[in-house]
Amino acid sequence: MIGGIFPILIKQILSTSTFDKEPPKVQCEGFDLRIYRWTQAMIFAIEEINNDPALLPNISLGYRILNSCASSTNTLRAALTLASGAEEASATSHCPPAISALIAESGSSQSIAVAGILGPFHMPIISYSSTCACLSDRTKYPTFFRTIPSDYYLAKALAALVKHFGWQWIGAIQSDNDYGRNGILAFKEEVEKFGVCVAFVASVLRTYTRDTFLEVVEITAFGVTFALCISCVLGKTIVVVTAFKATFPGNKIAGKFGHAQQRVIICSCTLIQVVICVLWLTLNPPYPHTLFTYSNRMIVLECKTGSEFAFYAVMGNIGILAIICLILAFMARKLPDNFNEAKLITFSLLIFCAVWITFIPAYISSPGKFTVAVEIFAILSSAFGLLICIFAPKCYIILLKPEKNTKKHVMGKTIS
């Protein structure tokens, strides 16, 4: 009998015990398709061994797989359940026999707990994902093996990278568990050999799974990046308007608008978006939601926004910046033809606003993977709209009409 422990469901539903009745059974949620494929690989390998008489003649392997919910406590409970067996049971008993080996676990913290408990009983433990270098200590974990390299080699590779670029002061971020703490410790030991100082080490409580982390990064990067882009266009628009109005007598404010003011506008507008995203991720972050309704043969993960208000705040901030920029560019539409920067910005922002106005209802009504397709289309079309409308005419002048690429032509002056 081979035991297996996998975090197929990746989050434990916490419950409060009142101690006046039997505690409820552990319940988990959050189906992880990647981990489920690992369980299928274990089952497939055992079946292949059983079907090949040359490997284990006259011996058939059995298996029993339990879920750990990615929790050290549940992993220990599952390991003890698998290893305990029923010695007093008769030959006709339906109780499963004790296991001969254990395939566990994905997290280093869980593997440390299991190897520490079952190691003294000479139980072979094979991990498929735990990379902590501490698990290579044969005095503590004599029966632990793994099919993945140790973090020791990753630490040496990262240290070699630091040496290659000649960095002297660096910061590091670790997850607040055995994997993160031991990994950073090994990394610090390696870089200190090259005289590198680790300026600071920040610990982050790891509460997100891989899929959740990717959803969060995707939405945050989208919101902050577009806010930065529109802020840059807004700064450019203000430069165009103020530069033209600076030619009017008595206009002192327009003449004082320079690069420092542009940076202030760009940084402040982007900072507002960053603050909104930080509050969103802290209070009610997005999360992947498993759907089984759209296809009986597929499991679809869609991104739930978590806080609808925060989602529309992110979109609304981008929209407000775009509308302000569009209004300013529209006000400067009557600039001379040679000085047509505002017209180009106006056309580009018209395309941008049109795309994102149609994006919101399409995004909300699109199911599952189609939301990603809608989002990618909106990002690409609006980005290319901005780039083509603003930079295509400039490239035309530079490449095909170089005689117009002069300050005199832009200012409307001719050579007598």
Q: Any overview of this molecule?
A:
The protein is an alpha/beta fold and 416 residues long. Helices cover 53% and strands 13% of the residues. The protein has three domains: 2-86 and 96-146, Response regulator (Rossmann fold), CATH 3.40.50.2300; 151-204, Rossmann fold, CATH 3.40.50.2300; 210-386, no CATH class. It has twelve helices and eleven strands. α6 (210-245) runs antiparallel to α8 (259-283), α8 packs antiparallel against α9 (308-331) and α9 (308-331) packs antiparallel against α10 (341-365).
Radius of gyration: 30 Å
- How would you classify the helix and strand content by structural class? alpha/beta
Structurally, the number of domains stands at: 3
Specify the overall morphology.
Answer: elongated
> What is the subunit organization of this protein?
single chain
How are the strands ordered across the major sheet?
4-1-5-6-7
Secondary-structure element series: EEEHEHEHEEHEHEHHHEEHHHH
Q: Uncertain segments of ≥5 residues (pLDDT<50)? A: 87-91
Strand content is 5-15%
How many strand units? 11
Average pLDDT works out at: 79
For the biggest sheet, the summary is: 5 strands, parallel
Distance between the termini: 97 Å
